[in-house]
Amino acid sequence: MEHKLIVSPSPHVHSGDTIQKNMYNVLIALIPAFLVALYVFRLDALIITASSVLFCVGFEFLIVKYILKKTPTLSDGSAIITGVLLAFNVPSNLPVWILALGCLFAIGVVKLSFGGLGNNIFNPAIAGRIFLLISFPAQMTTWPAAFPAAGTTDAVSSATVLGTLKFAPEALPSLQSMLLGTEGGSLGEMSALALMLGLVYLLWKKTITWHIPVSILATVAFFTGILYLFNPLPLYHPLIHLFSGGLMLGAVFMATDYVTSPMTKKGMLIYGAGIGFVTMAIRLWGAYPEGVSFAILLMNALTPLINNYTSPKRFGEVVKNG
Amino acid sequence: MLKTFRIGGIHPKEKKISAGEATQSIAIPDQVIIPLSQHIGAPCQPVVKKGDPVKVGTLIGKSVGFVSANIHSPVSGTVLKIDKALDASGYKRDAVFIKVEGDEWEESIDRSPELRKVCDLPASEILHKIAAAGIVGMGGATFPTHVKLTPPPEAKAEILIINGVECEPWLTSDHRLMMEKADEILVGTTIVMKALNVQKAIIGIENNKQDAIKLFSQKTNGYPRIEVQPLKVQYPQGGEKQLIDAITGRQVSSGALPISVGAVVQNVGTVFAIYEAVQKNKPLIERVVTVTGKEVKQPCNILSRIGVPLSNLIDMAGGMPETTGKVVSGGPMMGKALASTDIPVTKGTSGILIIPTLEAKRKAMKDCIRCAKCIGVCPMGLNPTLLMNLTEYEVWDRAEKNHITDCIECGSCSYTCPADRPLLDYIRLGKGKVNGIIRARKN
Q1: Who contacts A204 (Cβ-Cβ below 8 Å, separation ≥6)?
Q2: Residues in B touching A314 (Cβ below 8 Å)
Q3: A7 touching B, CB under 8 A?
Q4: Cβ contacts (< 8 Å) between A202 and chain B: which residues?
Q5: Interface with chain A: mutation pick from B4, B168, B253, highest number of A CBs within 10 Å
Q6: Do B7 and A5 touch (CB under 8 A)?
Q7: How far does the CA of residue A142 sit from the closest CA of chain B (Å)?
Q8: pLDDT at B151
Q9: pLDDT top residue among A179 and B176
Q10: Judgement on whether residues B249 and B129 belong to the same structural domain of the protein
Q11: Which of A207, A261, B208, B293 is a good FRET partner for B258, with 20 to 30 A between their CA atoms?
């Protein structure tokens, strides 16, 4: 035999799909929201996002190489996503050293101490944001006004929509400005429209399925819809809740993190409904005006349990034969 | 919306580059090797010995046990020896070596090209002839056909489904057979309908074979009880359970046979072999084999006697490319990688796929990122990543509870995994183990 043949079990072809492709699709889907952030916060948005990515990638490289003593696999792109998402979850005027601490916590504690990509229980960006929110409540809840006047880099603190809703409902902004992203808030949660554009891209590329984002949004709409029917206060307005705060960012990009969300369709629906419910419970009855991060973190913790108790719909299981 | 099966599925690139190549015959070599196990079930008992003269169609291996199939000499000549020979399984197993002399056929075989439409035989006689001719499922599974056509007495077949799906990428042997032997396939279908006593047959063909759909739609005008059903291109639609679901909307439950929903499925190649056996007394001694691949000079479809070395077929397709890394018997999704091309064509050889070295190597596996894409594509609705983990940690009771034995080994999970995890390798291993445990429990 002139040829040495390779013998391996079937299948002998592969789709060509890779972890990188999926991660880069998420990054592409984040571009519209990033552009809105750039437009609204100008240079600050760039500085925060770039340094967050740099910190996350840098910490991952250093920890994997010098503490874990393994070959760093930065090319999978997951550290970049964590960097961008964490940046999107903080005010644009957050001091960079605080941001660096958040990145260190997200990458070092939440991701790598559990074994790195694929093995972490909590979404690193969500956990990083909550770490910062609890450790630096003042800096994390002072948002600069949108469109800072030229030359003034100092933050003029402005309330977010949800803050206004909870504490001063008479001063609510219009729905249109919430959709387009001209109200105050964290970097990436400005425009619900831009985030929905990202969702459409992810669905088109089959990076994610509709189950998680739709079940979150539907639960929030249903929950507030019922309250609004009985008591039509702005506090209960479904559209305000859907388009404000971190809900859209969380529903599209944070809750859909592969690693920390359930794997079966049924499980995804339960998980999404749980996030929607906890978010609204915190928003309406909790001490914080916003609850998406806590809701996702809580449901992350329940994900192994959900995976254990849900299974895919099996062939021949429930189909009526006719 | 075209019909297809309802759970999972993938659409790999079709690559059917040999679809337009008319079937050509290959010369018979000086010596052939006929393995005595070319089917699922018990190997045959040889009924010839060294020095015996044989003709084309002479019985050389007799089936033993219920699930087994006769084997006939595909050539005329003298038996050289009965010895071990390498086959597609990778093992050396019993085979009959025959020195070829001339091409003399058994007198009982009708070699005329004339179409014999009428079959007056009763069902029992048809089944007897199919069993005698050693016909097996030619889509690749090689399950003895007479066994499949003998449903348990309490079951009743209602519909016959003819599998013209050929969902494996690259392969075109069934497609060519449909284009060139449509009349014979239709007569064969009526024979099977008679054997099963069913009133309806549906031929399922995927939508990437427009010419075959058109041809059969015209030809079935003369057969009021046979219909053609075009299907959306989706792998693994040629899987028996998937095809029944796609065509009838009925799902065979876990562990049950297709007959439980009243369906019997036969591959077009099998139906053609049944026509030849019943109407022409011709045993299964040859078949169409696709030889194809990215670097293959002349991808083609070859009508080959059983026992011809695969290397001869590859030579006919322009020789083994320099870049060859892997030779697969069958399609890229479910075919078997071969250690050597010196093995013979057998009843189940639907194609030879030659894969260049660059595409033959697997990539290193990464940690599972729990993207759940394997769950999304599994046509049996299983959780491949869970089953892989359960196998890795040898948790057999949970593997059984999660229906590892339902796996049809289509490979959609491994094909899809972005982390290049060898899901099917593990599941296959676990499935074997769990099946063993189940058998042991019954005994």
Answers
A1: none
A2: 254, 380-382, 403, 406
A3: yes
A4: none
A5: B253
A6: no
A7: 35
A8: 85
A9: B176
A10: yes
A11: B208
Tallying the residues shown for chain B, one arrives at 443
CA distances from A302 to A232, A265, B151, B397 (A): 33, 15, 48, 24
Query: Would you call A8 helix, strand, or coil by DSSP?
Result: coil
CATH, residue B195: 3.40.50.11540
Residue B236 lies in domain: 123-280
User: Does the beta-carbon distance from B369 to A118 stay under 8 Å?
Assistant: yes
The distance of B169 to chain A (nearest Cα, Å) reads 10
Q: Is A16 on the interface with B (CB under 8 A)?
A: no
Q: How many angstroms separate the CA atoms of A112 and A28, rounded?
A: 25
Q: In the prediction, which pLDDT does A318 show? A: 58
- B288 is a domain residue: no
> Do the domain assignments include residue B1?
no
Contacts of A70 in chain B (CB under 8 A): none
Say how far apart CA B35 and CA B58 lie, in whole Å.
15
Determine the pLDDT at residue A153: 46
Per-residue model confidence (pLDDT) at position A154: 46
- Identify the three-state secondary structure at position A261: coil
Q: Among A12, A18, A321, select the one facing B355 at the smallest CB separation.
A: A12
Residue B156 confidence (pLDDT) above 60: yes
pLDDT at position A162? 73
- Ranges of residues in chain A with a pLDDT under 50 are 1, 149-156, 320-322
* B378 lies in some domain: yes
Q: Identify whether B38 is part of a domain.
A: yes
Task: Indicate yes or no: CB of A11 within 8 angstroms of CB of B414.
Answer: yes
- For residues B276 and B127, state if they share a domain: yes
By C-alpha distance, the chain A residue nearest B353 is: A12
Average pLDDT over residues B199-227: 95
Q: What is the pLDDT of residue B383?
A: 96
Count of structural domains within chain B: 3
How high is the pLDDT of residue B281? 95
From the list B361, B371, B416, the residue facing A6 with the nearest CB is B361
Name the pairing type of β-strands B71-72 and B59-62.
Answer: antiparallel
Domains, chain A, ordered by start: 19-309 (1.10.3430)
Q: Are residues B133 and B257 in the same domain?
A: yes
- Do B141 and B218 sit in the same domain of this protein? yes
A12 touches chain B (CB under 8 A): yes
Which residue type occupies B351?
Answer: G
Residue of A nearest to B387 (CA): A311
CA–CA distance from B123 to each of A79, B56, B159 (Å)?
A: 68, 27, 16
Place of tokens 């002998």: A12
B49 and B102 both lie in a single domain: yes
Do the Cβ atoms of B245 and A315 come within 8 Å? Answer: yes
- B329 and B401 in a single domain? The answer is no
Mean of pLDDT over chain B: 94
Residues B326 and B431 in one domain: no
Q: A308 and chain B: CB distance < 8 Å anywhere? A: no
- pLDDT at residue number A237: 86
Residue A180 has a pLDDT of 65
Report how far residue A45's alpha carbon sits from residue A41's, in angstroms, rounded to the nearest whole number.
5
Q: Hey, what's the torsion of the CAs at A30, A32, A38, A44, to 10 degrees?
A: -20
Q: What is the mean pLDDT of residues B57-72?
A: 92
The reply to whether B189 and B133 lie within a common domain is yes
Interchain CB contact of A312 with B (< 8 Å): yes
Residue contact A322–B383, C-beta within 8 A: no
Compare CB distances from B339 to A5, A116, A261 and report the shortest one's residue: A5
A313 to B7: CB separation less than 8 angstroms, yes or no? yes
Across the interface, of A264, A312, A321, the residue whose CB is closest to B251 is A321
